[in-house]
Protein: DUF1330 domain-containing protein
Organism: Stutzerimonas azotifigens
Amino acid sequence: MPAYFVAIRESTQDAEELKIYSEKAAQARTDALMPLAFYGPFRMTEGEPMEGAVILQFPTFEDAEAWYDSPAYQEAVVHRFRGATYRTFIIQGVE
């Protein structure tokens, strides 16, 4: 079953840190990762405001975890932590 990594950016504190994150995260990309949504136009329908969102698809839940836990992505993600406030999660999809 596919799995999805969802990142919701709530607010930006340091755009330069996010730029570094973006560069390093691109280097952590794997063939298993397929972007489905990437900071495109959106309409808030309920809940707290957000600045944007990303949805990445992976073949399996384990593939998503392996990507997130990889040394390459963990090197990148510290810059996201410094640059903005996010909520993220991995969720298993359905067939």
In short: The chain has a mean pLDDT of 96. DSSP finds three helices and four strands in the chain. The beta strands are 3-12, 34-38, 52-58, 84-92. The radius of gyration is 13 Å.
